[in-house]
Every structure is written in structure tokens, then in C-alpha cells.
Design goal:
The protein is mostly helical. It has one domain. The protein has 8 helices and 4 strands, in the order E-E-H-H-H-H-E-E-H-H-H-H. The protein has helices at residues 16-37, 43-52, 55-59, 63-78, 96-129, 135-173, 187-191, 194-237, and strands spanning 5-6, 9-10, 87-88, 91-92. The strands form 2 sheets. The chain has a two-stranded antiparallel sheet. It has a two-stranded antiparallel ribbon with strand order 3-4. The radius of gyration is 24 Å and the shape is elongated.
Length: 243
């Protein structure tokens, strides 16, 4: 009996197993990235990183004002409605281009959130299709491995060319020219300066790799356990019949 078979017989017909494995692998990678992103959308991370990146010095505001404005932006970004009409001393914080970019960022977030929910649904379906077998676990392990290798490779490139990686990332996700701002006059890049993104990118990469490694370890353990169980069942079934 193969480890891709459940206790009651084959989990699904053989042609289904590659589909389960591939779907599980791709979905696992997406879900792991989504889980890793969540802590970086919290005030705990954003406020502390802004302080380390000296956003107060860039804006000329007390750190309490920086935190208050950022908190409102975060609510608009994640919860909505996305007005981005924050003010300080009666003056608008963002100009029209900055608000337009924030709207674009929200669109990307919503799109990725929808993708993550779909991936989670596909992952659950893959587990159901592979009932009791290891096809889904093998896919999860492969997806996590590929994700970890990809993030490590990207991290190595970013160490020597972070500006280029940052530019390519924005080019892929946003309209050309909509994401370039003057840090001497525009608040968006003063609130979130270069060092903020550099620190966030490093921490995000480390967390993604850590989650991927944990997933590989868990999947490997489950596969070995299933293989051992199936081998024992096969040995028992092929043993001498009782007199």
C-alpha cells in the first residue's frame, strides 16, 4: 500500500495525486507569505520601525504625531474607507499623488488578501482530495522549499542592490511614475523613509524563511510517519496467514 493511500484504500485515483501535490505546493507558498506579512501591518512593528528610521526627524513632527497619523493611514489602508485625508494642524498630510499611491497600495493589499483566501481554500481542498495520504504534505514541503530558496536568493541580491529590487517590485505592482516622491517635501516618504522599508524587507524575509523551514520540518515528519505506518500495514498484510 502506498503512503498516498488512506487506511481504507486509495485516497484518490493516481492521476489526482499530481494535481493535489501541485495545488498544495503553490497554495502553501502563498499562504506562508500572507501569514508572514500580517505582523508587519500592526502598529507594534510600524511605530517602532518608524522611530528607528527617524520618521520624526524627516517630518519635523513629534513621534506622537507621527504615530497618530500613521495609525489613521493604517486604518484607511486595512479597514477603510480609504480616504487618506489625514491632517496635521489643519493642513493636509498628503497631496493628490500621494493619496493616489496609497489607493494603489490598498488595491494591491486587497488583491493579495483575496489571493491568500483562495489559496487557503485550495489548500483545504487539496487536503480533502488526498485524504489520509501524503500527496498534500509532499506538495506543501516542495512549495515551502521553493519559497525559502527564492526568498534567500532575493535577499542576497537585495544586500548589494536593494534599490534595484525595490524599483523592480514597484514597477511590477504600480503604474510607472506613481511611486516616486521627493523626501524633502512629500510626507509619504517622510513617514516611511528608506530605512523603514529596508528593515521591514529584512525582517519579512527572515520570517518567511523561518515559516517555510518549519513547514518543511512538519511535512517531512508527517510523510515519514505515514510511510512507516503504511510499511507496517503492508508487512502485516503480507505475513503468514493464521492456522
Amino acid at each position: 500500500m502506498s503512503s498516498d493511500e488512506g487506511p481504507g484504500g486509495p485516497a484518490k485515483a493516481a492521476p489526482t495525486r499530481p494535481i493535489v501535490t501541485i495545488a498544495s505546493g503553490v497554495s502553501t507558498a502563498v499562504v506562508l507569505v500572507a501569514l508572514a506579512v500580517l505582523p508587519f501591518l500592526t502598529p507594534l512593528w510600524i511605530f517602532s520601525t518608524q522611530e528607528r528610521a527617524e520618521a520624526d526627524a524627516w517630518t519635523g513632527w513629534p513621534i506622537e504625531t507621527v504615530n497618530a497619523v500613521t495609525g489613521e493611514v493604517l486604518v484607511d489602508l486595512v479597514v477603510g474607507p480609504p480616504d487618506f485625508d489625514q491632517e496635521v494642524d489643519g493642513a493636509p498630510v498628503f497631496d493628490e499623488r500621494e493619496r493616489g499611491h496609497l489607493h494603489d497600495v490598498r488595491t494591491v493589499f486587497i488583491g493579495f488578501a483575496v489571493l491568500a483566501v483562495i489559496a487557503a481554500g485550495v489548500l483545504v481542498t487539496a487536503w480533502w482530495l488526498g485524504r489520509g495520504g501524503t500527496a498534500a504534505w509532499r506538495g506543501a514541503r516542495s512549495g515551502a522549499r521553493v519559497l525559502a530558496v527564492g526568498v534567500v536568493a532575493l535577499g542576497i541580491v537585495s544586500i548589494v542592490a536593494f534599490d534595484t529590487v525595490f524599483e523592480v517590485f514597484h514597477t511590477l505592482l504600480f503604474p510607472g511614475g506613481s511611486y516616486t516622491f521627493d523626501p524633502s517635501t512629500e510626507r509619504l516618504v517622510q513617514l516611511f523613509p528608506y530605512d523603514f522599508w529596508y528593515q521591514t524587507a529584512i525582517a519579512l524575509g527572515v520570517l518567511i524563511v523561518a515559516l517555510a523551514i518549519a513547514t518543511v520540518a512538519l511535512a517531512t515528519w508527517r510523510i515519514r510517519r505515514a510511510d512507516a505506518t503504511m510499511a507496517a500495514a503492508s508487512a502485516l498484510a503480507s505475513g503468514p496467514a493464521a492456522p
